[in-house]
């Protein structure tokens, strides 16, 4: 704020259970400004990301839960960075709310917290004073978003320029690698998933998938969607797009050759499907990731 000769808007403090906490097997320590019992009221809580074993990390941070819940109930906003959302969800504050989840953590998050509405296409959610983001460095965009809400667009733009952050990045689709949900225990659905994933160049119809798995179409389509989050058609499309992305990254074949290799005869149709899941055209995807 000093560039506008204005007083500081935020007073940032690190808050912890104890004054000093050793981490990394004692290699370094975190020294906090205040302990939880010293903060009776705050305006904004920023929850950092968790690493490693999420259930274990949640249990180790159990002492923070009541404090976060009580502060939120006293009108504090909660800004959650990346997979810190696992801890936030464990408090119950995300129940029936939307939460941006990193694409690689989506399946595990869904299994642990089925009551939360997962958002994995956009990078930011804003619902009833709770903000989440999907992706480690997406927290920069989330912070700009919160700054804009508190201080206005002009200050957010200034912050984006000072720290060289793309303020308009809204989606994680261009970064996501499709990972089908397989922790559901339905053997028939698993068999269908394995069939589709093992044959990315095949042009399976829904009837063909059902026939090969040995199930009736109507009931199976419903089970497949429930367990994977995708219809059979969408699952086939996602597998083909992922296959095409790998070929585009290698840069050895033309875009049209790759499209035909995925089993599509209609180039425009594939381009639409590709953009639907990546927010990029095949050509733009190649420019971004093929290098050279």
What does this protein structure show overall?
- This protein has 292 residues and is α/β, with parallel strands linked by helices.
- The protein folds into two domains: 162 residues, Rossmann fold, CATH 3.40.50; 103 residues, Arc Repressor Mutant, subunit A.
- 45% of the residues lie in helices and 12% in strands.
- It is built from 13 helices and ten strands.
- Strands 5-6-10-9 form a four-stranded mixed beta sheet, with helices on both faces.
- Strand 2 and strand 3 form a beta hairpin.
- It is globular.
- The chain starts with 14 loop residues before the first strand and ends with a helix.
- The model has no long low-confidence stretch (mean pLDDT 92).
- One of its GO terms (molecular function) is sequence-specific DNA binding.
Continuous helix count: 13
Q: How large is the radius of gyration? A: 23 Å
Helix/strand-derived category reads alpha/beta
**CATH level 1 name of the largest domain:** Alpha Beta
Secondary-structure arrangement, i.e. CATH architecture of the largest domain? 3-Layer(aba) Sandwich
DSSP E strands, number:
10
Query: Low-confidence segments, ≥5 residues, pLDDT <50?
Result: none
**In CATH terms, what is the fold-level topology of the largest domain?**
Rossmann fold
What is the N-to-C succession of helices and strands?
EEEEEHHEHEHEEEHHHHHHHHH
The main β sheet shows up as: 4 strands, mixed
Distance between the termini: 41 Å
Arithmetic mean of pLDDT = 92
Percentage of residues in DSSP E strands: 5-15%
Per CATH, the superfamily of the largest domain is Class I glutamine amidotransferase (GATase) domain
Choose one word for the global shape: globular
Domain tally: 2
Roughly what percent helix?
40-55%
- Lateral strand order in the biggest sheet: 5-6-10-9
Organism: Chryseosolibacter histidini
Domain HTH araC/xylS-type: 190-288
Pfam family, one: DJ-1_PfpI
InterPro entries: Class_I_gatase-like, DJ-1/PfpI, Homeodomain-like_sf, HTH_AraC, HTH_AraC-typ_CS
């Amino acid at each position: 704020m000093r560039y506008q000769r204005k007083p500081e808007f935020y007073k940032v403090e690190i808050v912890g259970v104890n004054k000093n906490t050793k981490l990394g097997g004692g290699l370094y320590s975190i020294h906090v400004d205040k302990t939880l019992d010293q903060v009776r009221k705050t305006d904004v809580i920023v929850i950092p990301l968790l690493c490693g074993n999420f259930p274990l990390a949640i249990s180790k941070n159990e002492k923070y839960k009541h404090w976060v819940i009580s502060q939120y109930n006293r009108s504090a906003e909660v800004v959650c960075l990346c997979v810190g959302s696992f801890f936030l969800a464990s408090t119950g504050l995300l129940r029936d709310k939307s939460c941006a989840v990193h694409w690689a953590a989506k399946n595990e998050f869904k299994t642990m917290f089925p009551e939360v509405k997962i958002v994995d296409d956009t990078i930011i959610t804003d619902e009833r004073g709770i903000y989440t983001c999907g992706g480690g460095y997406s927290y920069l965009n989330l912070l700009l978003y919160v700054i804009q809400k508190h201080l206005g667009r002009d200050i957010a733009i200034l912050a984006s320029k000072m720290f060289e952050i793309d303020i308009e990045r809204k989606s994680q689709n261009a970064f996501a690698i499709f990972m089908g949900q397989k922790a559901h225990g339905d053997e028939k659905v698993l068999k269908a998933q394995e069939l589709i994933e093992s044959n990315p160049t095949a042009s399976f119809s829904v009837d063909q998938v059902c026939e090969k798995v040995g199930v009736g179409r109507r009931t199976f389509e419903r089970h497949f969607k429930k367990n994977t989050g995708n219809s059979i058609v969408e699952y086939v499309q996602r597998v083909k797009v992922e296959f095409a992305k790998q070929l585009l990254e290698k840069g050895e074949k033309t875009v049209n050759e790759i499209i035909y290799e995925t089993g599509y005869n209609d180039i425009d149709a594939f381009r639409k499907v590709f953009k639907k899941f990546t927010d990029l055209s095949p050509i733009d995807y190649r420019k971004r990731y093929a290098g050279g």
